[in-house]
Amino acid sequence: MARVKCPICNKTENILKAGLIRNKQRYNCKNCNYHFITDKKKKNKIPFFEKSDKQITMLDIARAAGVSITTVSRALNNRSDINVNTGRKIKELAVTMNYQPNILAQSLVNRTTHTLGVIIPSLETTIFSTMLSGIQEVAATAGYRVIICTSNEKHEREVANIQALMNNMIDGLLICHSIHTSTFEHLRVHMNKRIPIVQFYRVAVGLNVPQILAEDEAGAEAVTDYLIKKGSQKIAMLLGPKELSLTQNRLKGYQNALRKNKIKFDKNLLAHVDFSDESVYTSLDNWLSRFPELDAIISISDKSAAQIITKLKNKKINVPKKIRVVGFGNEFVGEMLDPKLTTFDTQTRHIGEESSRLLIEQIISGKRDIITKVVPGKLIIRDSA
Amino acid sequence: MARVKCPICNKTENILKAGLIRNKQRYNCKNCNYHFITDKKKKNKIPFFEKSDKQITMLDIARAAGVSITTVSRALNNRSDINVNTGRKIKELAVTMNYQPNILAQSLVNRTTHTLGVIIPSLETTIFSTMLSGIQEVAATAGYRVIICTSNEKHEREVANIQALMNNMIDGLLICHSIHTSTFEHLRVHMNKRIPIVQFYRVAVGLNVPQILAEDEAGAEAVTDYLIKKGSQKIAMLLGPKELSLTQNRLKGYQNALRKNKIKFDKNLLAHVDFSDESVYTSLDNWLSRFPELDAIISISDKSAAQIITKLKNKKINVPKKIRVVGFGNEFVGEMLDPKLTTFDTQTRHIGEESSRLLIEQIISGKRDIITKVVPGKLIIRDSA
DNA sequence: ATGAAAGCGCTAACAA
DNA sequence: TTGTTAGCGCTTTCAT
Q: Which of A161, A229, B164, B345 is deepest in the core (most CB within 10 A)?
């Protein structure tokens, strides 16, 4: 074996191997107790990408510029305490060498990742992907990345996702709860941490976490009111699971309108569905058989409204003459239906945008005000009611 | 000022302050030239979250267990070279102390983030959010996070997003090009790097990057063939921008079917739209005025098919009697239309799943096979054709 | 204006 | 089986 020479004492005796660090052989000179390193010849063949894959680091720039790594850092971060020429030279060098900062290293040291986490029940439901679009747009503009996790309406996945994200990956969390989430311990444990949280659309009530909400109560009231004005008396309502604040708020709005118009509330006109097609159809059949005088249906979403209208047409029940149908959400599908769908526009995209905005504001300001904001919507009157 | 004692020589003279490191005061003993540290009393008031926000590190566990940090690492990573009892004790301790690993630090050292980047034109188009759903589902199952970036169909944003993601944040990239992307240098520069790339749905042809495609050519051929069998002769086709491979492939399929059935190709029956509502309506009006004998329209998406059907109904043109309409994508809206939409199901979700699967496979295996995979679709026959 | 060195929290090679 | 040490790539403090 070729002898290695200690760069300090220049001897070749008593040099021990002392570890292999990132492909470099490290040695220890027992004479002067000095550790040093030489390149190690590669054993295994070079992977195909290795040759072009050498990431330029600040050290490379420092060497090329003949300055210290600190100076490079200062130059690239546009610090004031640096010679203008040195700074310019380093920045030019960084460009020509195609330097790309290692974001992981920056994040580790700065304790900030410029990344938001979003937990959302599903991506295939129009309102959720629309909200996500709003979130991502605002985030991108503010220079934040977005990591998405879908809970698929499963509580366990919501819990697991939160845990995974909160481990230093994100600067803030946006969450829209799954329908099966009724305990909130998994959120509570993170509430007093550095990382701010904002709930949106489906929120846990009584939790000290800011919320961005749709205009559920006022919206449902406006819709019900409108139907009554149009002459409906027997108004059924398709709702989500009882536990959701959203459900409760819409129900409240509905009841407000009934009370105002002196119509007796009948809880059999309520149906709680789990968003499956089947549960929607079952509820509809149920109503039709129990309430021949049914003259209006308020649906939980435009999608189920579309399903209801289609089903009613199949049964030769005229919409809106016999039964008026109103949706919630103002999705694209509403305009394509025949009759065109009357719906309450919850301004889904805005909800996403506002949530993102509030979260980023809390990240930047460091403030943790417990704000509740309702994004105003509006009734879109078309032909189905 | 209270004097500080050097732990080496035990003197209190000639001790200089030597920096403040992460809230600790560092000193330098000039007698023995030894650097040491003591805790520094906090000056500014504690932020509200600080008390509960002390992240437990491996060092804390090591101290609590009376072992070295390496041993903790070994225990938590379930290494074999560790005493079973020590390992168990450490893992218990980690749980009781509620230890959460710092993913950034792990990623930095392991050079892998378990995160995929996805660049997608939009989130508000059903097919894209559906593909994303498939991507995210497969990724989550394999233990990968997903960062999304929308290009909003803008080339510059696509380029910027790629650059931002490739800086050590991701282990692999999934990309669906924006319609305005016709040069691919921004991709090419990353092709030979460690980070694998997979293109999906809208791909750059002739680029050495794996692709997952919809069955565009065969699908369009099947659709056209079906229309001709049904008796259509004058078949218009709504296409995306000419540059997209997807457009070219569907056009090829259309032409194949015409040729096979000895129908003359007329390029005036083609319209290239930019997915805006307006361009769809303009194309339709154009066709109607120029081709009174028009008897079928193949649309680029179910959404535009829906718009076309709605518009034709407005104009009292019977679908499918006078004009047959076929969509692409099999989105939810198709079933809600009247008449129900005949469409080619591109299996959008599968495309996302397959892309994700291929990318992860390449990440794990380290192989970079240039695979092109077409996800088979099928014709869904309903009432509009 | 610049550099040396410590440290962010973790992993891994070697010594013991 | 365990500890010591260097290092991932960056920022920051203090000294010069």
A: A161
Residues of A in contact with B306 (CB under 8 A): 336
Q: What is the DSSP string of B19-46?
A: EEETTEEEEEETTTTEEEEEE----SPP
Q: Which two tokens stand for residue A323?
A: 């039964």
Domain count, chain B: 4
Q: How far apart are CA A139 and CA B188, in angstroms?
A: 27
∠ at Cα A81 (A80, A87), nearest 5°? Answer: 75
Strand order in the sheet with A211-214: A372-375, A211-214, A197-200, A172-175, A115-120, A145-150, B145-150, B115-120, B172-175, B197-200, B211-214, B372-375
Sign, CA torsion B6/B12/B14/B16:
positive
**Does nucleic acid strand C have an atom less than 7 angstroms from the CB of B109?**
yes
Pairing of strands B324-328, B296-298: parallel
Check CB contact of B245 with chain A, cutoff 8 Å: no
- The amino acid at residue A228 is I
Distance between CA atoms of B227 and A154, rounded to whole angstroms? 43
Spanning CA of A7 to C1' of C9, the rounded length in angstroms is 32
- Which residue range is the domain that position A259 belongs to? 217-345
Q: How far apart are CA A185 and CA A190, in angstroms?
A: 9
Q: Are residues B314 and B248 in the same domain?
A: yes
Query: Does A176 lie in the same domain as A187?
Result: yes
What tens-digit pLDDT sequence spans chain B (385 residues)?
A: 223 444 444 444 444 454 444 334 445 554 444 445 543 333 233 344 544 567 899 999 999 999 999 999 999 999 999 999 999 999 999 999 999 999 999 999 999 999 999 999 999 999 999 999 999 999 999 999 999 999 988 888 888 889 889 988 999 999 999 988 878 888 888 888 889 999 999 998 888 999 999 999 999 999 999 999 999 999 999 999 888 889 999 999 999 999 999 999 999 999 999 889 999 999 999 999 999 999 999 999 999 999 999 999 999 999 999 999 999 999 999 999 999 999 999 999 999 999 999 999 999 999 999 999 999 999 999 999 9
Asked if residue A247 and residue A318 are part of one domain, the reply reads yes
Cβ distance B303 to A332 less than 8 Å, yes or no, reads: yes
Residue A11 lies in a domain: yes
Rounded to 5°, the CA angle B292-B294-B300 comes to 135
First to last CA, chain B: 91
Question: A338 lies in a domain?
Answer: yes
Task: Tell me if chain A has a CB within 8 Å of the CB of B332.
Answer: yes
Q: Which residues of B touch A129 (CB under 8 A)?
A: 123-124, 129, 132
The minimum CA-CA distance between B2 and chain A, rounded to whole Å, is 32
Order of strands across the sheet that contains B296-298: B270-272, B235-239, B296-298, B324-328, B342-345, B378-380
d(CA A298, CA A258): 13
DSSP for residue A153: T
**Residue A209 sits in the same domain as residue A298:** no
Instruction: Identify whether residues A281 and A249 lie together within a single domain.
Output: yes
**Identity of residue B46:** I
B-chain residues within 8 Å CB-CB of A192? 48-49, 52-53
Indicate whether A204 and A240 sit together in one domain: no
Residue nearest to nucleotide D1 (CA to C1'): B82
Write down how long chain A is.
385
φ, ψ of residue A190 in degrees (nearest 5): -100, 0
Does the CB of B57 have a partner CB in chain A at under 8 Å?
Answer: no
For residue B187, is it within any domain? yes
Number of C-beta neighbours around residue A218 at 10 A: 18
